[in-house]
Amino acid sequence: MFNNNPQFYPYPSQRTATYGKKGMVATSQPLAAQAGLDILKKGGNAIDAAIATASCLTVVEPTSNGIGSDCFCLVWTKGQLHGLNGSGHAPMGISIDVLKEKGYKEIPRFGFVPVTVPGTVSGWVELSKRFGKLPLTDVFQPAIQYATEGYPLSPTLAYYWQNAYKIYKKYLKGDEFKHWFETFAPNGKAPNVGEIWKSVGHAKTLELIAKTNGKAFYQGEIAEKINAFSKKHGGFIRKSDLENYKAEWVNPIHIHYKDYDVWEIPPNGQGLVALMALNMLKNDHFSSRDEVDTFHKQIEAMKLAFSDGIKYITQENHMKYPVDALLSDSYAKKRRSLISDKALQPEPGTPPKGGTVYLASADGDGNMVSFIQSNYMGFGSGLVVPNTGIALQNRGHNFSFDETHDNALKPGKKTYHTIIPGFLTKDNEAIGPFGVMGGFMQPQGHLQVIMNSIDFKLNPQAALDAPRWQWLKDKIISVEQSLPNHIIKGLAAKGHQMKVEYNSGSFGRGQIIWRDSKTGVLVGGTESRTDGAIAVW
């Protein structure tokens, strides 16, 4: 399927694809990838490795995720794909009316207002109970060790940590935020590259979660600490919100794209956006990636899909139109007909009635996991529960403050969610997990790496290394500086407002693992735009 001969790469890869047989873990931090591989070597499976990597990432990449995160997961095991929605709901005590009474005109980025119930811990527990082989006390051990003993910061991690510190120092003035600075800037500054950082509170929290299989977090000691912290500072989340939460097993959604099936988690995640865009392009033939027409059609399809997604995606039972309608062939053809030779101003259609971390893991038995978790917007709300290391997410910031919007804030509701894991199959056989983290870049990254893989036959590393574009709004398109100049000029001639970016951080960070169903050989790629690594056996 994929061309592994370097002479055919249209772009220079910083790394070659990585091969293995018994196991592979790909993620944005080398220490976390190695932690997952260590669990495989101790007798765990790909699910155990994913949980070990995810828990370790809360320690070694806190700029993007934490124990207070949400998560989503796609698991391939015994010939079947399973989906897990580990996103939390809004507290029962919050509403648009309540916020208006308190003087709010929008949902803020920081503080308790955007805090929703953290779903990641429940996600870990559900994955372990259903598919894991090892107890959480074993699986969490690498994360606990790094939190206790500390680890040196890698370059990209330090960069984002420094940026977050500058923002938080400027805007977080209330007493409720002091615990963030105590935890993540213990010496009055953010740690630098190579400096050791640790969090004993984080380690103790992980130990408690492991010993109680998550009960301490949602019903016990940790839940009581979150409740007390929220009450003290006028927050909305309560112990009852935590007690009533459980990660939900869901049926993945998919489209058939050029002999392959591309899978995503159903709403409230935005994976639907990637599928809608691919659905519009599935009958197009692209002779080359390096053509203006290729980029133009990709961008136009994504703009149309995103305009629908932003309007309609929310918790699925609150959506005006069902997923089947948005993914129908008739609607895809209707939207595809709007793509002309010129850039369009995207508008939502009318369907027929009807800061994030990503990791991929695989073992020698054919189990494969696509896993993503995030606090949102870096460290999240700026709130850290005292003495626990738990940075609370701010996912509620994505809710609409408009009561008439599908994604309007309501008590107990889940918001439009940016984090999405992806998976690829062919003829009911697993090809493997893929993902590109990074806010609203994620479905755009999914479309680009899938087309790089299927349409242009690039191996995982080359598919990730290829220059990326990002639709921002209206006709504004951001592109990496490595994109060929004739493409940039050609897109501008079609009416796109081109913006060349020299910081690649805004274009997402991805991982891919593909498996040869005949030989069991694994081939992986990791993100060259961050401190990405693949641990392989």
Write a brief structural summary.
Helix content is 35%, strand content 19%. It is α+β, with helices and mostly antiparallel strands. The protein has two domains: 6-249 and 358-398, no CATH class; 253-258 and 267-356 and 428-518, Orthogonal Bundle (Serum Albumin, Chain A, Domain 1).
Structure, explained:
α1 (30-41) runs antiparallel to α2 and α13 packs across α16. β17 (476-480), α19 and β18 form a beta-alpha-beta unit. By secondary structure, this protein is of the alpha+beta class. The protein has 19 helices and 21 strands. The strands form 5 sheets. Strands 1-20-19-15-14-9-8 form a 7-stranded antiparallel β-sheet. Strands 7-4-3-11-10-2-21 form a 7-stranded antiparallel β-sheet. A 3-stranded mixed β-sheet has the order 16-17-18, covered by helices on one side. It is globular.
Low-confidence stretches: 4-12
> Could you give the distance between the termini?
23 Å
Q: What integer value in Å does the Rg equal? A: 22 Å
Arrangement of strands in the largest sheet: 1-20-19-15-14-9-8
List the keywords.
single chain, 537 residues, alpha+beta, Serum Albumin, Chain A, Domain 1, 2 domains, seven-stranded antiparallel beta sheet
